[in-house]
Amino acid sequence: xxxxxxxxxxxxxxxxxxxxxxxxxxxxxxxxxxxxxxxxxxxxxxxxxxxxxxxxxxxxxxxxxxxxxxxxxxxxxxxxxxxxxxxxxxxxxxxxxxxxxxxxxxxxxxxxxxxxxxxxxxxxxxxxxxxxxxxxxxxxxxxxxxxxxxxxxxxxxxxxxxxxxxxxxxxxxxxxxxxxxxxxxxxxxxxxxxxxxxxxxxxxxxxxxxxxxxxxxxxxxxxxxxxxxxxxxxxxxxxxxxxxxxxxxxxxxxxxxxxxxxxxxxxxxxxxxxxxxxxxxxxxxxxxxxxxxxxxxxxxxxxxxxxxxxxxxxxxx
Length: 317
What we know:
This is Protease Do-like PDZ domain-containing protein. Residues 232-314 form the Protease Do-like PDZ domain. It comes from Linum tenue. This protein is flat. 14% of the residues lie in helices and 30% in strands. It has three domains: 43-107, no CATH class; 131-195, no CATH class; 214-315, N-terminal domain of MutM-like DNA repair proteins (Alpha-Beta Barrel), CATH 3.20.190.20. By secondary structure, the chain is of the alpha+beta class. The chain has helices at residues 3-18, 167-171, 262-270, 291-304, and strands at residues 21-22, 37-38, 45-52, 67-77, 80-82, 91-98, 104-107, 141-145, 148-149, 155-157, 163-165, 178-185, 188-195, 214-217, 220-223, 233-234, 251-254, 257-258, 276-281, 286-290.
């Protein structure tokens, strides 16, 4: 190698080092290993490929068709990768691919923690079970978060000449951290120190990959309520004429006894010896069918709609 070429190589190496590039020395026959490594920290980022099979909330005894999605993940040690919970929700298969690689590796999903995302700028609605409900009120104007002023469009200063959504400040904190918020209430400016923590939902926001619970009798489909609301539904049959339009309605009592949950309802109906099945619903609605006729018709309805069972596996004794 000539001195000139040596000097050129040295200058290239210096430029590479200044730009964050690292050159590897390579032996003969390994030209594909001469790939310049840009920002080695990016090697901790992987691409996550997921095949999902979501529950069918209208027909809770079966699932919907499969579909695929992809997202990014981050290696956190211990042969584990951190990614968004919704990216692998209701997964059938998950694969990982490293940056620059053509090989996909099968992965196992650990328990999901879906309720970790905090967002929102304006105080338009406050969940009654949220800790902030004791401090904030509807129509409060959020002026600042940890002394950072919030603009009318809900943005804050970011890098030089740039702005970003206020939720960025929240994302920099952890559950249990405290934040100083300043609000305008009426004509007064108030300051509160709030503790950031997820609120307890009365209705679960996720079913954590499980199939929805259901119970069927006389063509009435009863399901446990959740945020991705599995719609109450009536499978039309002669026995439930006049009740076809009853949907999205809570069951209050069965034969005069309060219904605590779906399993309680299933047990009461299965063991019922009364002549009639009487379901009292919200909005003063009532459904009444003969017990013997209802149980006989249920078998025909299951066969007609290709439903394998009157109830989901988690409700069976």
